[in-house]
Amino acid sequence: MVIRIFALLFTFGLLLSSCGTKKRTTQRRTKPRTAQTTSTKPDTSGQTTTTTTTGSTTGQQDQPDTTQATPKDLTYAEAVAWYIETFSQVAQQEMELYKIPASITMAQGILESGAGRSDLTQRANNHFGIKCHTQWTGERVYHDDDELQECFRKYIDAKYSFRDHSLFLTERRRYSGLFDLAIDDYKGWARGLKRAGYATDPKYPNKLISIIERYQLYKLDEEVLNGGAITGRGSSTSTTARTTYVVKQGDTLYSIARRHNLSVDALKAKNGLTSNTISIGQTLDVGSEN
Known about the structure:
Layout: H1 2-18, E1 36-42, E2 48-54, H2 76-98, H3 102-113, H4 119-124, E3 140-143, E4 150-153, H5 158-170, H6 186-195, H7 204-214, H8 218-226, E5 244-246, H9 253-259, H10 264-271, E6 283-285
Antiparallel strand pairs: 1-2, 3-4, 5-6
Helix pairs in contact: 2-3, 2-5, 3-7, 6-7, 9-10
């Protein structure tokens, strides 16, 4: 009996030693994940592009592309909305520099370019019908106007058409009376343009005023004035004038003086000039005349 019990214990011990369990250890490697943000949006050609951004992103509002003509498939109402969205900022910048109401610039652009859909605007980015004249050395197109195949300026970017419009008004004496008006007096500006001979259409002032009021373009003027960027004659907004100005191509002493509410003699005296000669890149003192 004892021998039998001993045999059973010996057998049980052998089973325990031969059936030991193997433990498997699984180790997970923790790998930092990089967050990805996928966005889908239409590009300028109307096609859809998908962009994957790694890490955090910061939203940024794109600037309007002023090199593009108004899409041809838009209705007139849609074209006007597109035009205002695209060029209102340009008009406001011109208002800051040249003290021409942005509402007037925009209304003239909408009227004269057909909200950017006219043939001249589509072909040449020319929004104000500015002709070549003798001093123009850039590209040109020929277009029927008062006479057949007249020469008009062509711009690579429409913003240069807006700049030429500003220079056209500031550098011609017949428009000098406009700058004695309050800068937010769009009705006075509209009528003054007609009196100065800008247009022959007797209804021209009313057309401009109608466009400004229909699309509330006067709000563009208010935004600039409330931002404190303008010091215009007749304006009720009190702001600090810029004290220096860097001469750009096309500037004259007269246009710079007019722009900053100075006489030419005062501008010359402030800068120690003995002649009317200035150069591109020259910095001038244009502080307010005492």
